[in-house]
User: Fold this.
Amino acid sequence: MSRKFFGTDGIRGQANTHPMTPEIAMKVGMAAGRIFRRGEVHGRVVIGKDTRLSGYMVENALVAGFTSVGMDVFQFGPLPTPAVAMLTRSLRADLGVMISASHNVYTDNGIKLFGPDGRKLSDETELQIEALMMNGLENGLAPSPKIGRAKRVDDAQARYIELVKGTFPRKLRLDGLRVVIDCANGAAYKVAPAVLWELGAEIIPVGVEPNGVNINLECGSTAPDAMCAKVREVRADLGIALDGDADRVVLADERGQIIDGDQVLALIANSWSKLEKLRGGGVVGTVMSNAGLERFLGALNLNLARAAVGDRYVIEEMAKGNYNVGGEQSGHIVLNDFCTTGDGLLAALQVLAVIAKEDKPASEACHLFEPLPQILKNVRFKAGAPLESPAVQKRIEECRGKLNGSGRILVRKSGTEPLIRIMAEGEDETLIKQIVNDIAAAVTEAAV
Assistant:
């Protein structure tokens, strides 16, 4: 059965246009509320959001939907996606909702749903919600005395701060470390600086003045230049850049050089294996993970299991192989000893723990392998399916022949934006640049 609303990471789109309209949001609340309601007893749903302007509109529509079918709603206000996942379990809620379009610009928004275990819903449950949204909602309305209630939860941020601090090694402090923290003017703009400061770090905050339209704007993990520049300016020991909902992170060492998700996975795998905390015999990455990471892990007798791109697929692969560390090159790092989804701040704390414990500069502690040359390029399209073009497929096969087994090519459609993502990796950087440009040209021609 094909999906009509849900994509790879919930529902996402331009705010106030289909499918991100108040009407759809209300229907999501009504349908999901009916599925997760506890029979005749009021169910409980928690809602968090990031700082984009349309969040108020979407939140009110969701609240109307949930309360209309007898769900009680607890509203957190601005809070990271992983905080919503954690607090869904902590508050014994039947459902958690995050209103965010993650790293996208403010004109977009999205709805992510979590079950009572704090995990993203299965494809089957999302299809159930869609089926109800399109048929039968009028039969599920609560009688007037059973309409749900809605209220604000004032201590949600404090609860999350304490949960995250609890993941940091006991008796270890960040005293003496200067840290730049870029919150992307997003959901973590209060909690992330508070966690780092309470653990002893000297903090230099960036991107902590949200106004509804500046989320991810020239800041955060998708635009880390501001963070890198600030690290160099203030001579910080580490830079941390989160995205709009703080479920991913990009770091910078004391020289302002980027530390991506692959290097973070290498560091955590190395550290946790020494502490005998690593499960599964390695870590889970994705098809985008650099071959350099795979070689590094192999030298430690650890394996790299590759999942499809998307943190939900990483989490599924982790469950299959009993892994407790997984993530993406883009900075989604999942540490399921602590959380059921990616948490950028939590991952950054694990990196800071190694830096503090080993008393090494980030440039030494966090650059554990030399990545193979890897080129990425995105091609935007308006309509159609350019990847199905015979000309594009022929060009991809021709380029694979040029690599002659000495590298990889990955061409895929984005699950959240109208983009074709092209990646090539290999020993010869000049060759892989040529290959990426050749495929991009073929996609562009097919997308006209």
Summary: Residues 429-447 form the longest helix (19 residues). The domain at 160-256 is CATH 3.40.120.10 (Alpha-D-Glucose-1,6-Bisphosphate; Chain A, domain 3). The chain is about 35% helix and 20% strand. The mean pLDDT is 94.
